[in-house]
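Subject: mismatched residue count in predicted assembly?

I count 732 residues in my input, but I want to confirm that the predicted structure covers every chain. Input:
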Amino acid sequence: MECQIGVISGDGIGPEIVTEAKKVLDQIGKKYGHLFHYTDILMGGCSIDATGVPLTDDAIAAAKASDAVLMGSIGGNTSTSPWYQLAPELRPEAGLLKLRKSLNLFANLRPAYLYEELKAACPLRDDIIGTGFDMMIMRELTGGLYFGARKTEEVDGVTTATDTLTYNENEIRRIAKRGFDIAMKRRKKVTSVDKANVLDSSRLWRKIVEEVAKDYPEVTYEHMLVDNCAMQLVKDPKQFDVILTENMFGDILSDEASMVTGSIGMLSSASLNDTKFGLYEPSGGSAPDIAGKGIANPIATILSAAMMLRYTFDLDKEADAIENAVKQVLKEGYRTIDIMPQAGESTEGIEQVGTAKMGDLIAERV
Amino acid sequence: MECQIGVISGDGIGPEIVTEAKKVLDQIGKKYGHLFHYTDILMGGCSIDATGVPLTDDAIAAAKASDAVLMGSIGGNTSTSPWYQLAPELRPEAGLLKLRKSLNLFANLRPAYLYEELKAACPLRDDIIGTGFDMMIMRELTGGLYFGARKTEEVDGVTTATDTLTYNENEIRRIAKRGFDIAMKRRKKVTSVDKANVLDSSRLWRKIVEEVAKDYPEVTYEHMLVDNCAMQLVKDPKQFDVILTENMFGDILSDEASMVTGSIGMLSSASLNDTKFGLYEPSGGSAPDIAGKGIANPIATILSAAMMLRYTFDLDKEADAIENAVKQVLKEGYRTIDIMPQAGESTEGIEQVGTAKMGDLIAERV
Ligand SMILES: CC(C)[C@H](C(=O)O)[C@@H](O)C(=O)O
Ligand SMILES: CC(C)[C@H](C(=O)O)[C@@H](O)C(=O)O
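Triage response: the counts match. Full output below for your records.
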C-alpha cells in the first residue's frame, strides 16, 4: 500500500518524537510491504517564525492532499515565548484549531489506559486501580464554545466578553454515532456527559444521544453530569468504557483521565472526519523545557501512528504489531525518564533510555 | 448576639443533616450567649410537592429577611424522581439557581481539605498526598454559561440549541478581589483558571485578574488553563492554595477537588454577596438512597454552620470551636459510615456512629 502522510513536527519536543514515529512506520513498511511518503507541513510556532501565521493556506492544502496527518506537538512556554505576545488568532494553538475546522475533524478519540507495567506511576491507590482501567474519550471537536461567535465590546462603558456555545442536532448525532460505534468494538458501554440540569445545549445533547442509542440496543448507556464525571474519574475510573461528550467538557475530562493513568507520555489521539482522513497526535504537550535533550518519550506519537494505520489505512495487523512492540519494550524493562519507577520503587531489570533508543527498540520489535 | 437564620432543609438527607447542624449551633448559643432564630424555607423537591414550583417568591423573601441561610441539600434521584419529568425551570435545582441569582450570591467558596485522620479515604497515593493539602476554590456563581441567554430553535429545519457565556469586567473584578482577599488570610497564592487560549471571556478574565493582582503585591499568582488544572488537581493537589475561576469551570474543578480529598461528606461551602449575607451548604448532594436511614454524615453541614458564624456573624471564636470539635471527634475515632476505614485498614479505636450521634458528639465538644 502507498500512504501519503502529512507530517507536522511542530515545536518543542515535536520534531524528536515524530522522527521516532517515522522510524517505526518505515520498519512496518519494510516488513509488511507498504510505502510511506512524508510531506512536511508547517504549523504552530515554527510556522509563525517562518511565515508570520500559525497555519498558512498552503499548509492546509498540503494536509488536505494527504491521506492522514501525523503531528508532534505545537506551542511553547506561554509565559516566556514571544508567540504568546501575539493576538490570540496568531498564536500556535490557533493553527491547530484552524486545521481541525478546515478538515472538519469533529471526532476526537483519546484513549486513557493504565499500563500494567506502569501502575506505579498512576496517582491513584491500588484499591482504586483494581484490575486496571481502559477508557476511550470521544470528544466533539469542531463545535461548542470553541467555534461559536465571540466578541469583546463596551456595554455602557463596561468591557464585556461573550462566547457562544451552539450545537445542532446533526452535529450531536454524528458524534454520538461515532461514540456508540466505537463502544460496539469495545465493552459496549457509553457514558454521555453533559450539564443538562443547566444548559439548553446539553438538553439537546441528551435528547439526541437517546435517539441514537435506540439504534444500538446492545450498548448500555447512561447520562452523567460533567461535575459528577470529574469526580468519578478520580473515584472509580474502572466504571468507564466510552465517554462521549462535547468539545469543552471533553477537553477538561480527557486531560483529567490521561493524568489519572499516570502516563500521559504513553497516550495517543486521533481526530477524524467523515472520510478516512485523520490527524494523529500524542495527548501530551510540546514540553519546551526538555526539547532537544533527547529524553522525551516518543511512545505516544508511535502509538498515534498505530492509530493512523488502524483508522485511516485499515492496516489492523500492522497497528497491532506496533502496539505489541510497545508492550514488549515495556515488559523488557525499557523506560524513558518520565515513566521511570518512582522513588522507593524497585528498579531491578529497568533500563532508562533516550528518545532515539526507545524508537530503535520499538522498531526492532514490530 | 441574635441571629436570624433561614433554614432550607430540602430533600433527601437534607432534613437529617440540618437537624444536627442546628443542634451544634444551639449548643454554641448556650455556651457563648447567642440566640439563633430559625425560619424554615421551602426549596427544591419538597417545595415542588407543596407549591408546584421549586422556590416561591415568599421563600425568596424569607431568605432575604434572614441574616444567613443554612441549607441541607435539594433534588432527588434524577432517573426515578418525578421532579425530573418537569420542565427544567421547574426542577429542584432551578430553585437553587434562582436563589443564588435573587440574592446576588456571586462568590462561592468551597474548601477542599485533606483530614489527617481520613487520609486512608483519599484516592491518591501517599507520595502524592505528602504532607496533605488544603485548597479554597473561589467560584464565580452568578455569571457565565449558567445565567447567559439560551434558546432552542429550528434553524432551517434543524434543531439548534445555544447557551451564552458572558462576563463583564465588573463581575470579574469583584470575584477576583474576593479570591485575593481570601488568599491574604491563607498562604497568599492564587491560581486563576481560564481557557484564555480559546475564549474571549477567559481573555477578559485574565486581564482583569492581572489588574486586581497589582493591588495585592504580597500574593503570588499564576494563570492556569482549565484542562491543565484538571490534571494538576490529580497530579499534585499540594500546589494549590486559592483557585479562582468562573462558574462552569468552578463547578467541575471544585467537585474534582472535593473528590480528591476523599471525604466529600466533610466539605462545607459558602455562597456570598456584597453584604454579610451568605448561603451555607454542604458540598455533597441529597443522597436519596440513604435518606431517612440515620446514617448520613452531618459534618459538612455542621462545618457550613461554622462558616456561617465566621463569614456572616464574625463569630470567629465560635466557628473555631465547631471546627475544633469536629477535629476532636475524628481524633477520638468516631466515624459515620462514609468515612469508615477502607477494607484492609485498621479499625482499632474506630467507632461507627449514625447521624444524630455524630451531632451529639460534636455538640458536646464545642
Ligand atoms: C491547544 C488547545 C487549543 C487544545 C484544545 O483545548 O482543544 C488542547 O488543549 C487539546 O486538548 O487538544
Ligand atoms: C445543582 C447544580 C445546578 C449546581 C451547580 O452546578 O452549580 C451544583 O452542581 C453545585 O455545584 O452547586
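Chain B touches chain A through 65 residues (CB under 8 Å). Marking this ticket as 'not a bug'.
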